[in-house]
């Protein structure tokens, strides 16, 4: 007769995380997250285009002090008015790259607190920039109005995607079945 198997041999196999979908709780959540990452990239591109066009206007003719104060812009010399908005656009780019790399690298579980923090800061900054462009658009007309509204729309889309990604990344997948090691 053979001896009974040792206790360590009776353990259940470890359930490894094989994909990002496993870390997000399933393929539906994964698909929705990929959709929101695409929307975040789109919002970044729209905001960048509108911001660049607005900066070109500001560089070519300067901004009037008559509208900067009512539009919540400080009295700055030409070339410095959109500095905060450029920082916000750059920060949004960095955050979307980090989130995309986390999805590609399958490290959502390990980087969840960091991703939620970065997305929260990015959504706050993009909301502030959207508000600034919404306020300044009322003082323009024609193509200037269209360009500032384009930047406004890009920042709103980016903020919406950031808030949706906070929800999607923050979802904890269901725990593994009883007996499986994590």
UniProtKB/TrEMBL annotation:
This is Uncharacterized protein. Keywords: Membrane, Transmembrane, Transmembrane helix. The chain crosses the membrane at residues 34-53, 84-108, 114-130, 150-170.
């Amino acid at each position: 007769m053979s001896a009974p198997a040792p206790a360590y041999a009776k353990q259940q196999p470890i359930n490894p995380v094989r994909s990002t979908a496993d870390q997000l709780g399933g393929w539906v959540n994964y698909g929705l997250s990929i959709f929101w990452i695409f929307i975040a990239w789109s919002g970044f591109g729209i905001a960048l285009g509108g911001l660049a066009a607005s900066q070109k206007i500001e560089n070519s003719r300067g901004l009037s002090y008559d509208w900067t104060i009512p539009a919540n812009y400080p009295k700055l010399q030409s070339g410095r008015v959109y500095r905060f908005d450029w920082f916000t656009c750059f920060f949004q780019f960095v955050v979307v790259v980090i989130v995309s790399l986390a999805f590609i690298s399958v490290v959502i579980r390990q980087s969840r607190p960091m991703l939620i923090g970065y997305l929260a800061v990015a959504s706050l900054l993009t909301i502030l920039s959207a508000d600034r462009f919404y306020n300044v658009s009322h003082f323009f007309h024609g193509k200037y109005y269209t360009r500032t509204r384009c930047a406004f729309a890009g920042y709103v889309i980016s903020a919406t995607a950031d808030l949706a990604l906070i929800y999607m990344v923050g979802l904890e997948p269901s725990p593994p079945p009883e007996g499986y090691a994590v």
